[in-house]
Amino acid sequence: MAGTPPRLEIRNIVRRFGGRNVVDGVSLQVQPGQVTCLLGPSGCGKSTTLRIIAGVDMQNSGEIYVDGKLVCDTIHRVPPEGRGIGLMFQDFALFPHLTIAQNVAFGLKGSAAQKRARVEELLSRVGLLHYAEEHPHQLSGGEQQRVALARALAPRPRIMLMDEPFSGLDNRLRDDIRDETLAVLKEEGTAVLLVTHEPDEAMRMADEIALMRDGRIVQQGAPYNIYNTPVDRAAAAFFSDIN
Ligand code: ADP
Ligand code: MG
């Protein structure tokens, strides 16, 4: 019996800039309904890896599969919009002149009734249905972030790529928003690859952590395994300032 393929799999991704392998043979899997964290210090190649998966940058070698289907190697290349991948970055800018509902509906396909139903479903899920007819500037940073999450999820991406999505937020808000975001992602059943340089964020949100350093995955596993059994001194030191 053939097993279900991972939702996302990348194999041996290499990306060179100026003769240096910024991403140096990264392989990863993300399972349906799970959050995988790509965790590592600034400059280790996390964002580059994510951009390649999204299709806005191109690897020098290696392959990307979605649900077992090749979407990109050095010969075949499915364009970004054909990959079933949603994106959320730190700079989540909403369209200021559109209402919250219009922001979430933006780019959705289907009839007006279908779009309205999906927008209402998502705005309820993030607890902001009462703001549907307001404009972004009337919302707090945390609320805008939740709208951005609703917008990214609206077209039902099979995979959500998130690059340090919480780093622009106030410390006080961050834990709450992390928890809320995680709950929404789990309800939607979206597979998530979350990039962060913060170990506590990975410990809080991940089902699986891939620890990255100098363009390579140095350790991968369940959060408590990585925390309790770091692969080397550098990995131990990286986790040591979690409180
Ligand atoms: P991270 O997201 O882990 O902080 P990045 O993937 O942004 O790391 O960057 C990894 C390394 O690649 C850095 O040294 C960065 O300067 C370099 N880099 C990223 N993009 C480019 C580019 N377009 N041209 C040259 N170097 C780049
Ligand atoms: Mg980055």
Automatic annotation (TrEMBL):
GO terms for biological process: quaternary ammonium group transport. The keyword Cell cycle does not apply. Its EC number is 3.6.3.30. GO terms for cellular component: ATP-binding cassette (ABC) transporter complex. Keywords: ATP-binding, Cell membrane, Hydrolase, Ion transport, Iron, Iron transport, Membrane, Nucleotide-binding, Transport. Residues 8-239 form the ABC transporter domain. GO terms for molecular function: ABC-type ferric iron transporter activity; ATP binding; ATP hydrolysis activity. It comes from the Bacteria. Signal peptide: none annotated. The keyword Heme does not apply. This is Fe(3+) ions import ATP-binding protein FbpC. It comes from Pseudoruegeria aquimaris. The gene is fbpC. The chain holds residues 1 to 243 of 361 of the full protein.
